[in-house]
Amino acid sequence: xxxxxxxxxxxxxxxxxxxxxxxxxxxxxxxxxxxxxxxxxxxxxxxxxxxxxxxxxxxxxxxxxxxxxxxxxxxxxxxxxxxxxxxxxxxxxxxxxxxxxxxxxxxxxxxxxxxxxxxxxxxxxxxxxxxxxxxxxxxxxxxxxxxxx
Length: 149
Description:
This protein has one helix and 14 strands.
């Protein structure tokens, strides 16, 4: 009976370890555009050139390569050195309103189109993300209106 408990405890420990492996890890493409491949090698087929600051979800790291998911759900590989921990988000639809405060009734500062990359100025809280546009304007958007947070 003791061995069953030990095996059970070991299984729980391994499950908790795997749980941490599946935590969402968002990063961004660095300061220069990056080629995304279908395999973890420059010999792989080039599938996309990701613009600078594009948010990606890191699925796993294999040597010097990271398997990433983009906002459309596509999976590809990128050299890990081309990723940056600085966070960015991308808008999910056209007409996303950026507001002065994290409140639906707050005045709108500006609106953005679909697929606009915004810098994440502060992490998401209470369903809102503080963002900054590349032109310097900033404010709050609903976390459901962006991907990558």
